């Protein structure tokens, strides 16, 4: 019960201790300002109460000291309101040092314990080594002076033993309060650092994914361009073939420009992390784009691609992320297919989901590799023609599928090929919006 009341009081004081704080204020500076506010706030009514008590009991000097303490606490709050934090600390600690020393010397009221609390606060609120050392030395000297050199009670009658006991008890509670509050400062600071560390780690992971997308999407058009330029240089093309190849070259440059535009959009979105923006769109056009991305590589390896996707199939997902998934799956299928092989892209509908499969008859994978395929970043594998990947593609596919409320699965046998199946939400669009053409690449 006492602990609950204590926590309630602390929570109330914390809400009232925001004087002088503002959004964006450095964390430790804000905590120190709140700490001084929490010291000053209870001092105002407490010292004013003792001011009245000592005035009634005829201790006029001690009453004046209590009133000075009350006014100094109020002035600290005013200084914080006007953002004079440094002066507020010096004022509060300096005046209390003087007042408590005089009270302890001449009234023997246990002020040395109040001075001990000042020593503790000084060590907590100052970073400057020289100033902290000077203030600590002054406080220690004041404590020793009060304990070992008490003065005759010439300024008024000393306080009763009951008052001394009450003062010691209140200082003990105050010191416990300061320590608990400082621990909360440290825990809060550590929590904030950990939160920032996790946010930075997540941002770095997003950047790594974006770099993988950049490498993947730029590499394939550049390989196409390099292959065409090699054929130009070697003179293996006839005049008609040269004319057709120049048109293909122009098409590839235009496609690369579009890819760079898409990557710029991805990078802009990635500044604040990867976000999923689902919408309805037709599947076939985006699948066509993904396959055309690798058509020269497909031709070089003499691969046949069969697609069995109706032009009415609609997905509800993030189009850019689905595009990345399809390009990765088609790229893997082409990379690990043998020359003259076949890739089949099929589709089924099941319980409101569209399940798209990409099957090849290539190198395949063993059980050990399958069991770790989506668990961590893979070492880049070389394709059947020496193609090299980044090791991030399938991790991206898995994450993007899950971000779109879908999933990805794989079946494979060494030397027999691999089948990737990705399930995504089925969407809806009016029939008049369908402008796609059925794709058949043989």
UniProtKB/TrEMBL annotation:
Enzyme class, broadest EC rank: transferase
Record Pfam families: HATPase_c
GO CC annotations, alphabetized: plasma membrane
Start and end residues of each Histidine kinase domain: 213-428
Statement: the UniProt record of this protein carries the keyword Transmembrane: yes
The EC number(s) this enzyme carries: 2.7.13.3
UniProt protein name: histidine kinase
Protein species of origin: Niabella ginsenosidivorans
Origin organism lineage: Bacteria, Pseudomonadati, Bacteroidota, Chitinophagia, Chitinophagales
């Amino acid at each position: 019960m006492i602990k609950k009341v204590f926590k309630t009081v602390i929570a109330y004081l914390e809400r009232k201790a925001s004087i002088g704080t503002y959004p964006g204020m450095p964390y430790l500076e804000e905590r120190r300002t709140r700490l001084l506010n929490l010291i000053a706030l209870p001092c105002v009514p407490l010292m004013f109460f003792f001011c009245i008590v000592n005035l009634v009991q005829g201790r006029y000097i001690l009453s004046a000291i209590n009133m000075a303490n009350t006014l100094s606490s109020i002035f600290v709050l005013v200084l914080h309101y006007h953002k004079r934090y440094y002066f507020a600390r010096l004022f509060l600690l300096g005046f209390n040092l003087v007042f408590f020393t005089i009270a302890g010397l001449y009234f023997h009221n246990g002020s040395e314990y109040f001075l001990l609390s000042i020593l503790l606060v000084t060590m907590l609120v100052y970073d400057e080594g020289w100033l902290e050392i000077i203030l600590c030395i002054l406080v220690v000297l004041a404590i020793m002076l009060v304990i070992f050199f008490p003065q005759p009670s010439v300024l008024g009658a000393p306080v009763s033993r009951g008052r001394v006991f009450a003062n010691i008890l209140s200082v003990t509670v105050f010191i416990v309060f300061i320590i608990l509050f400082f621990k909360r400062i440290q825990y809060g600071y550590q929590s904030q650092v950990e939160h920032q560390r996790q946010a930075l780690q997540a941002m770095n992971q997003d950047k790594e994914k974006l770099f993988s997308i950049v490498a993947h999407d730029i590499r394939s058009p550049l390989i196409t361009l390099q292959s065409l330029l090699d054929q130009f240089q070697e003179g293996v093309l006839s005049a008609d073939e040269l004319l057709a190849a120049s048109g293909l070259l122009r098409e590839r440059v235009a496609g690369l420009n579009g890819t760079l535009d898409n990557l710029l959009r991805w990078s802009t979105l990635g500044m604040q992390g990867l976000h999923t923006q689902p919408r309805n769109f037709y599947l076939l056009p985006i699948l066509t784009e993904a396959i055309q991305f690798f058509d020269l590589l497909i031709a070089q390896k003499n691969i046949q691609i069969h697609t069995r996707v109706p032009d009415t199939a609609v997905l509800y997902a993030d189009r850019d992320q689905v595009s990345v998934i399809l390009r990765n799956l088609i790229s893997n299928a082409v990379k690990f297919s043998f020359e003259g092989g076949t890739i089949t892209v099929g589709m089924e509908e099941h319980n409101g989901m569209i399940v798209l499969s990409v099957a090849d008859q290539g190198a395949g994978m063993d059980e050990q590799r399958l069991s770790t395929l989506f668990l961590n970043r893979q070492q880049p594998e070389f394709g059947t023609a020496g193609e090299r990947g980044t090791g991030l593609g399938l991790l991206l596919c898995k994450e993007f599928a899950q971000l779109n409320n879908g999933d990805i699965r794989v079946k494979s046998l060494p030397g027999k090929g691999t089948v990737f199946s990705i399930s995504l939400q089925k969407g809806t669009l009016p029939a008049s919006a369908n402008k796609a053409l059925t794709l058949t690449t043989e």
